[in-house]
């Protein structure tokens, strides 16, 4: 084997162009696959970096009859589960999100969560500096804080310096007692954890204010834990038939809860890039077949001198292995770059979970080695088999020119495979592209251009604090209107595609809210200040807008969307009717206006019922707002003036800025990433398919140059020779397109789940890809065909 390895290296050294093309082709395929696998491995396959990772679950509320499940629970449900499910060793609840945190001389937005004292023990992770909540008695259960190491270094200089410092959230002081390691990031993007009482602050059975994680007892299966949760659910349904009707609970492994929503997308992309590797292998196999045909005399001489068929096949497989390993080495270098690009793209555009766990590690390295070994078998076995089974006498009679033999059919088949796979990928890319265009063309129902959005949080703790915060933002809106370049300003909670918002059930016109629990009409809840609808460009259909008179001590009012009007007031004028939702209180609100529908979550979401309430009349949700500003200049150019104005009004107000265009863009980040990557893979596949067609037709025309010379000598025109060669290329392309069409149709179920506004069998897309891809592939044979048409009969016949 060592001798054959040296011989393989020497042979490849003597054919540098072949070696370079083969290695580069494989490197592209292996590099793309390895980069994509590093993402899949880091997000989907790699276990969570917690000592108790295999036993951690998230407890979800489930409605099996409706086929609905969501990751929130009510306060009393948590208490009942904690007391009644013995399969769960510990249960912890938490709530929060990105909120304003105040320090001695500044404030900032940070991922802030209130957690029960046993929260960190469920994960089996302790602070690297200081101690946890459970280590110092009951005081920390109400006023302790633990921060992440990056947060401590950013705000206090170091983790040690953060200990004992005080931070405020919603007007409450918390002392920092511990610093978590930088690798602990649960919940997602969490930087500050504040201790809260194990007793939930809300014991309302219809208020899903909490998320819960639990630790399954060692030796207990998830199925056994879920059986006990279903038993608890059945008992609570009997005891509380209104609030808990048809409701049960489901323990989902934490890793599945985190990555489940992106699993299909990542596996789809992994499958797409795997096709690129197959095409690369087919391309290199064609190169090896052509090279083996040219070396048939060499192999025949070796066989005549006593080499066995196994020895000849082994020699060619060793050469294939050397090419594959060289491609693997170069592919790993490409994978390092590709992984960094993919990580940045997914972080900035999609916000995939566990992005920090993506890296090119030993698992990824072994995958690359395995890919190269598979590639060796895929492209090396056919040339080795043909060379080992060639007839020695026939090969020697060919005087070293090489014959196509049966390998010609194999080469043609490989071209068909390349065209088919590249065509199927191109159709997928075309469908995703047209879907994304449709997504961006939908009517959103609101303005996105020249819109600056400021997230602002003013700390509040008591009712008076919240009322003061509401008045502060009302005054701030008036101050911001004076900034040059700002044309309109309004405050809101629940701006479309934003981070804030709520939803739930409602009743109308005197209906009993509690009697209808479990059968309530549903709507999105948003809060708005005066001028919000005109600033956002949301059309007022009838009635009036909110105004400064809609304050906390006045008659509660509401504005509804057209969808809600159709849902609850069909054929009626809703103005003057009353509605109640219980967002903060069970007060009846008089409907004073109807506005146009908006696509709340993203352009892909259908316009639905929305209930708008005045910010000042819902004070407990009005201290953390989104201030929307329509501008006459570039929105980003106003960030610093707006930030300075808010800081001068109240330095404790935390602010963060974005634009409506960025928010809408982020809401469609996943389909955009799919489109971009599949488009990239399809382009790479098409490039390899074109190279494969060129290589085969170039080899075939070279083998048939004598035949073409005879044809021309007998009177054939160059045009007829050109047509002959291109006709054969067209046949191969047509067969490949037919197979690719079948592959694309077979994948319609998968594609339909990822498309918006069109079907996976969209005829326009198929026709467009057909008209674009087929000529490109056929024209790859143009240069060999032109060379054949210009063959000199004298030179061609003399070579015989």
Task: Please give the structural blueprint.
Layout: H1 2-14, H2 16-45, E1 56-63, E2 68-70, H3 75-84, E3 88-102, E4 107-115, H4 119-123, E5 129-130, H5 140-143, E6 144-148, H6 149-156, H7 159-162, E7 166-169, E8 172-180, E9 190-195, E10 211-216, H8 222-239, E11 248-253, H9 254-294, H10 296-304, H11 309-350, H12 362-388, H13 392-397, H14 407-441, E12 451-457, H15 463-480, E13 486-493, E14 502-508, E15 521-528, H16 532-536, E16 540-543, E17 557-561, H17 562-568, E18 578-580, E19 589-595, E20 610-614, E21 624-631, H18 639-649, E22 654-659, H19 660-667, H20 669-703, H21 705-713, H22 718-746, H23 748-752, H24 763-779, H25 782-789, H26 793-798
Parallel strand pairs: 4-9, 6-8, 15-20, 17-19
Antiparallel strand pairs: 1-2, 1-10, 1-11, 3-4, 3-10, 5-8, 6-9, 7-8, 12-21, 12-22, 13-15, 13-21, 14-15, 14-18, 16-19, 17-20, 18-19
How would you sum up this structure, described in words?
About 1% of the residues have low confidence. The strands form 2 sheets. Strands 1, 2, 3, 4, 5, 6, 7, 8, 9, 10 and 11 form an 11-stranded mixed beta sheet that branches. Strands 14-15-20-17-19-18 form a 6-stranded mixed barrel. Strand 3 and strand 4 form a beta hairpin. It is α+β, with helices and mostly antiparallel strands. The protein folds into 3 domains: 350 residues, no CATH class; 107 residues, no CATH class; 192 residues, no CATH class.
Count of domain modules: 3
The secondary structure category is: alpha+beta
Question: Could you list the spans in which at least 5 consecutive residues all have pLDDT below 50?
Answer: 399-405
How many β strands by DSSP? 22
Euclidean distance between termini CA atoms = 39 Å
Average pLDDT, rounded to a whole number, is 86
Q: Helix coverage percent of residues?
A: 40-55%
Counting H and I runs of at least 4 residues, what is the number of helices? 26
**Biggest sheet architecture:** 11 strands, mixed
Beta-strand share of residues? 15-25%
- Please state the CA-atom Rg, rounded to the nearest Å: 34 Å
